[in-house]
From TrEMBL:
Keywords: Flavoprotein, Monooxygenase, Oxidoreductase
Domain Acyl-CoA dehydrogenase C-terminal: 250-382
Organism: Streptomyces inusitatus
GO terms for biological process, alphabetical: L-leucine catabolic process
Domain (Acyl-CoA dehydrogenase/oxidase N-terminal) ranges: 31-116
Protein name per the record: Monooxygenase
Entry-linked Gene3D superfamilies: Acyl-CoA dehydrogenase/oxidase, N-terminal domain, Butyryl-CoA Dehydrogenase, subunit A, domain 2, Butyryl-CoA Dehydrogenase, subunit A, domain 3
Coiled-coil intervals, chain numbering: none
The organism's taxonomic lineage, starting at the top: Bacteria, Bacillati, Actinomycetota, Actinomycetes, Kitasatosporales
GO molecular function, one term: 3-methylbutanoyl-CoA dehydrogenase activity
Taxonomic superkingdom: Bacteria
């Protein structure tokens, strides 16, 4: 891809409000869209794409203004993810996961820890990855050193989104002989951290989501997030990681769907031929074509509006993290589950049905329209949507709230 940046990204001040940052994301998206289909085919490590996110300032969106960050909130971050995913679902996912892991220090860390991490991340424009796949065995964490002042992480994870393009990686494991879960942020070039080039799936091909081996990665006890004198003080806020990442999913699904619809509409306007027996000179005048675009657009707008509403509800929890109750957390997760179900269904339908209104020639490999469906289909299998609907249904029928797990 071209690495030439618009001059104002480097010569003008960064945006100062949400509309400005969303507009900046749209500029980045336009750059990514130019060769998105070709980059999807090549499947190369997205170093240039991540550099684009850094140089545009998007990686620092949630960071403190005093240290060069954007000082924005989660609803803005989600909209930015959606905008980037319109052009490239993989890069939208990478950016969304980056926001999650950048925020992880605040999720579980002490104030001193997360203030330090957020300041350093903003100043240095760190890009975050994470090796925290809960379907695999936990990493084993052992104490070492004369005063047991060092933690040593060992194990393997099947997925590590961000891997080679990240500056730092979040690790999570269980302290040997205990039930203590420990998060730590380490440099991605740490000795003992090995990323493997084995991500070869039909969609989200540029997410660098391959496996990783963690072989004796050493971390000072003082860097264990949320621990003071080796003791962790739990809060309900610590359990918001799942709702946050699920809203990330929702937004890059909807971004991919919006990109598919926009790309298809351009194709229909410029390339689709009217049916020879339809009696119309242009495809855009075919009644069934008009109907499908109207139907799909209405479903997209409906899902986007719901997603935005849920994101605003989530922000109220972030605004007062010490006041969150288990009841408030559970009710929010039900809303997130419902939004996830709606977004998944809308994105799958939109990305598959666009071919009905673009025509047979649009299936040519050179057009790359299939990448939108492949991307959505691949990631929506992350956790079964039936279980999201179950969370909603149980709450409606019995008042039951989801128990916090890695997936709810």
């Amino acid at each position: 891809m071209s690495t030439t940046l618009p001059a104002d990204w480097t010569t003008l001040p960064a945006p100062t409000d949400a509309p400005g940052w969303i507009a900046r994301a749209a500029e980045v998206s336009a750059v990514l869209a130019v060769d998105a289909a070709a980059r999807d085919k090549a499947g190369a490590t997205p170093y240039a794409e991540v550099r684009l996110l850094k140089e545009s300032g998007l990686v620092t969106l949630l960071g403190p203004v005093a240290h060069g960050g954007g000082g924005q909130d989660w609803p803005t971050a989600y909209r930015v993810v959606r905008e980037i995913a319109k052009a490239d679902g993989s890069i939208g996912q990478l950016l969304g996961y980056h926001y999650l892991w950048n925020w992880a220090a605040r999720l579980v860390g002490t104030r001193a820890q997360w203030e330090h991490v957020e300041a350093e991340a903003a100043r240095n424009r760190w890009f975050f990855g994470g090796a925290v796949n809960p379907r695999d065995d936990d990493l084993v964490v052992r104490e070492e050193g004369e005063d047991a002042d060092t933690l040593v992480f060992t194990g393997r994870k099947s997925f590590s989104t961000g891997s080679k393009v990240s500056d730092v990686t979040v690790l999570e494991g269980v302290l040997e002989g205990t039930d203590k879960h420990i998060f730590a942020i380490v440099p991605s070039d740490s000795e003992g951290l090995a990323f493997h080039d084995d991500w070869d799936n039909i969609g989200q091909r540029l997410t660098e989501s391959g496996s990783v081996t963690i072989d004796g990665v050493r971390v000072p006890w003082a860097s264990a997030a949320g621990y003071t004198d080796k003791t962790f003080a739990p809060r309900v806020y610590n359990t918001l990681n799942v709702p946050v990442i699920q809203i990330v999913f929702i937004n890059f699904y909807l971004g991919i769907a919006a990109g598919a619809l926009e790309t298809a509409a351009t194709y229909t306007r410029t390339k689709t031929r009217p049916w020879l027996h339809g009696g119309h000179e242009r495809a855009v005048d075919e009644p069934y074509v008009i109907d499908v675009y109207g139907d799909l657009t209405a479903k997209l707008w409906q899902a986007e509006a719901f997603a935005d509403r849920v994101a605003e509800e989530a922000q109220r929890l972030h605004d007062d993290p010490d006041a969150i109750t288990e009841d408030a957390r559970g009710k929010h997760e039900v809303r997130v589950a419902a939004a996830k179900a709606v977004a998944t269904e809308a994105a799958l339908e939109i990305t598959s049905r666009i071919f009905e209104v673009t025509g047979a020639r649009s299936t040519a490999s050179a057009e790359g329209l299939d990448r939108f469906w492949r991307n959505v289909r691949t990631h929506t299998l992350h956790d079964p949507i039936a279980y999201k609907r179950r969370e909603v249904g149980r709450h409606v029928l019995t008042g039951e709230l989801p128990e916090p797990t890695w997936y709810s």
